[in-house]
From TrEMBL:
Gene name of the record: cyp9
Family under the similarity heading: Belongs to the cytochrome P450 family.
Native organism: Streptomyces avermitilis (strain ATCC 31267 / DSM 46492 / JCM 5070 / NBRC 14893 / NCIMB 12804 / NRRL 8165 / MA-4680)
Annotated InterPro entries: Cyt_P450 (IPR001128), Cyt_P450_B (IPR002397), Cyt_P450_CS (IPR017972), Cyt_P450_sf (IPR036396)
Protein name: Cytochrome P450 hydroxylase
Keywords tagged on the record: Heme, Iron, Metal-binding, Monooxygenase, Oxidoreductase
Molecular function via GO: heme binding; iron ion binding; monooxygenase activity; oxidoreductase activity, acting on paired donors, with incorporation or reduction of molecular oxygen
KW Lipid metabolism (keyword) present: no
Coiled coil residues, start to end: none
């Protein structure tokens, strides 16, 4: 991708909503060069794509915006993974990969981890309240990038001491695939990703020898029934599966925490209302997820010639299914560009829909609930720092503030 095109892609990613609005005004689909895909931004059209997984494959869901250089690819070749995962699989293979995750993130499992999540949320707020720079915090680093990793790590069964390395490796994987880096920077990022993969491989082999009541043991058993030593192929499959689960489990929730707090504080009257009436927190979560979705969308590729929104698409056509665009569609959500926690929630697409709907949606909502309960109760005077303007990270995968400096 040339520099000019990448500059336009950055602009689109930092504020995609004007592009969605323009696409919705057309009867037919619009092909967007920056995305190298047809943009699907109306609620009805997005739902149609998600209802037709046989026609719109997920195989390219994680196609990189920036293809790593050969030197970086060579480094990645020394790691683990590179296999189809639940996000990129279709049909029976998708159901096979998804089943242990659905069981592992069941309502009972989520309920069981909530006391730990509440304890961690309290401890993280305690830490920045008592910090040396009292009265100011950068929320992304001090809280939003920590709680989700701790929680999904607990469910998977990771040693808490290993969670920071896994979280860091996840962020580096996202940078490597979706940000323009120099070749030397790509190599270093690839080394960080491979270090995470080797950590996960050691963890997987340990769990095979000593299975426990955790999600990792369940995934290992689903890939390799029995108790024999894992083959190299099985280790690759399991590490790929775990890496995808862990990244989805912390990156998306981190982004959702950041965008939710940002939009609440940008609307002071709504923040004050939430502090006065914390029973509104569930509705506020749904409105925040709808208004500025952390996961803006995924790619799909047509498996045969299809017609969508009056547009004839050949087999192999790439479409970008914009959950964030559908969530601003006035045909479903009145006053779609207004942030209003008092609105009656309607079913949005912030967590996807259909066979690929996010199995961790309830876990994300619970962590956001705990976060807002902490902040509204303990820091009702919270507000954005005037001297540190907010910029959004240029990505449609995990949309969030790059940093979020707050004062009270």
């Amino acid at each position: 991708m040339d520099l000019e095109l990448h500059g336009r892609l950055d602009e689109l990613q930092r504020d995609p909503y004007p592009h969605y609005a323009r696409a919705r005004r057309f009867t037919a689909l619009e092909h967007v060069p920056e995305l190298d895909a047809w943009l699907v931004a109306r609620d009805a059209d997005v739902r149609e794509v998600l209802r037709r997984p046989d026609d719109f494959s997920s195989a390219n869901a994680l196609r990189p915006d920036v293809m790593p250089a050969p030197a970086a690819l060579a480094v990645l070749g020394g790691g683990f993974g590179g296999r189809p995962v639940v996000v990129t699989a279709d049909g029976a293979r998708h159901q096979e990969l998804r089943a242990p995750i659905v069981r592992g993130l069941s309502p009972a499992r989520v309920a069981a981890v909530l006391p730990y999540a509440a304890e961690r949320a309290t401890a993280l707020v305690d830490r920045f309240l008592s910090g040396a720079e009292s009265g100011r915090v950068e929320l992304m680093a001090a809280y939003a990038r920590r709680l989700p990793g701790d929680v999904i790590g607990r469910i998977v069964g990771l040693d808490p001491a290993d969670v920071p390395a896994v979280v860091y490796g996840g962020h580096r994987a996202e940078e490597l695939l979706f940000r323009p880096l120099t070749e030397d920077e790509q190599v270093v990022a690839a080394q960080d990703v491979v270090a995470m993969q080797h950590l996960l491989d050691a963890f997987v082999r340990d769990r095979r020898a000593d299975p426990r009541e955790d999600l990792a043991s369940e995934i290992i058993a689903s890939v390799a029934p029995g108790d024999g030593e894992l083959t190299l192929d099985q280790r690759h499959d399991i590490v790929a599966h775990l890496q995808n689960l862990l990244l989805a489990g912390h990156l998306t929730t981190t982004a959702l925490i950041g965008t939710t707090v940002l939009n609440l504080l940008r609307h002071p009257r709504q923040w004050e209302l939430l502090c006065a009436e914390p029973e509104r927190i569930p509705a506020a979560i749904e409105e925040a997820a709808r208004y500025d979705s952390a996961l803006q969308g995924f790619r799909r590729v047509t498996t045969r010639p299809v017609t969508l929104a009056g547009t004839e698409l050949p087999a192999g056509a790439s479409v970008f299914v914009a959950f964030g665009g559908a969530n601003r569609d006035g045909g479903r959500h009145p006053r779609p560009d207004e942030f209003d926690i008092t609105r009656t929630p309607r079913r949005h697409l912030a967590f996807g829909f259909g066979v690929h709907g996010c199995p961790g949606a309830q876990l994300a909502r619970e962590q956001l609930r705990l976060t807002l309960e902490q902040l509204t109760r303990r820091l009702p005077g919270l507000r954005p720092a005037d001297d540190r303007p907010v910029t959004m990270r240029p990505t449609l995968i995990h949309r969030s503030p790059r940093s979020l400096h707050l004062v009270w």
